[in-house]
Amino acid sequence: MLLDSASLYFRAYYGVPDTLRSPQGEPVNAVRGLLDFIARLVHDHRPDQLVACMDADWRPQWRVDLIPSYKTHRVAEAAVDGEEEVPDTLAPQVPVIEQVLDAIGIARVGSPGYEADDVIGTLTTRAKGPVQIVTGDRDLFQLVDDAREITVLYPVKGMGNLQVTDDALLLEKYGVRGAQYADMAALRGDPSDGLPGVKGIGEKTAAQLINEYGDLAAIRAAALEVGSKLTPARRRNIVEGAGYLDVAPTVVRVATDAPLPDFDPTLPQEPLDPMALEHLASRWGLGTSLERVVETLAAR
Questions:
Q1: Who's near 44: CB < 8 A, 6+ residues apart?
Q2: Please, what is the Cα angle at 193 between 189 and 197, to 5 degrees?
Q3: Which of 14, 81, 116, 157 could form a Cys-Cys staple with 53, CB 3.0–4.6 A?
Q4: pTM listed for this prediction
Q5: What are the two backbone dihedrals, phi and then psi, of residue 133, each rounded to the nearest 5 degrees?
Q6: Taking the alpha carbons of 47, 52, 8, 30 in that order, is the dihedral positive or negative?
C-alpha cells in the first residue's frame, strides 16, 4: 500500500475540525486525521507493506522548465522561494506527522527533485506483487493496471468509502484504461496543475481520439496526414499545440525511475521507538487516534 501522504493530510486537515488541539492549544487535526486514516486503511485492507510517499519537491524544476505554468497558481503570492501555499495551521503539523510516522516505524520515503507521485510511480514499477495506491489525486489513475493488480483507492467520503479504481472503472467513467490515462490528461489539460491542454479538446473528445487512434503519437500523426478523418479545426488545434504536446507527456507522466533511499516497507507490529512515540503522544495530545494505529498494527 502506497500513501500519497500530502493528498491525505490535506484531506484530513480540511475534514477534521481544528478544535482538536494539543495541550498547548496548537491544532493537530491533520495529524490525528491522518492517523485515523492509516488505522482504517490497515484494518480494512490488511497490507503487509505500507509506504508514506512524500513530496521532497512539490513543483520540480524539470517540470517547470518544460511547462512554466506548472502549478503556478499554487505558489503563494507573497512567497519569495516558490513555496507552496499551505494553510498557516497545517504547515506546523507536517513535521509532527513525519516524527510520528518515524516513531511508529512506518516507512516514509521522498526523493530530492521529485514529487510523491514519482515515488509512487517508481515503487509501483518495482513492485513484484499487487499494489494499492491511496490518493485523492486522479493523476495517479495512469498507474492502474489490472494485469499487475495495481489499483487506486480513491476517497469518496473518508477512508471508509473508497472507490476501488481499476481498468474497468476507468473505462466506464473516462473511456480509457490506466495505460491511456496520461495521454488523455495531456490532451485535455488540467487547470488545477497549470496544464493548458489542446484548444477545443476536453475529456470526452480526448478519450474518443485515443480510442480511435490508439495513443497521443498516432493522434499527432493523423493531424499531419492529409487524408485522416480529423476535422480541419481539430487538425489545426493539434498542430498548433505541437510545442505543448512535445513536452506535456513528460510533465504529466509520473517518473518510474526516481532515485530512492534504502528502506524497509514492512509494517511493524509494535512501535519502532516506543519512548519517542510516548513523548509525541503526550506533547501533541494524539490520544485515541494514535492508540488506534498501535492497536491495529498489533492485531495484524
A1: 159, 160
A2: 15
A3: 116
A4: 0.93
A5: -105, 125
A6: positive
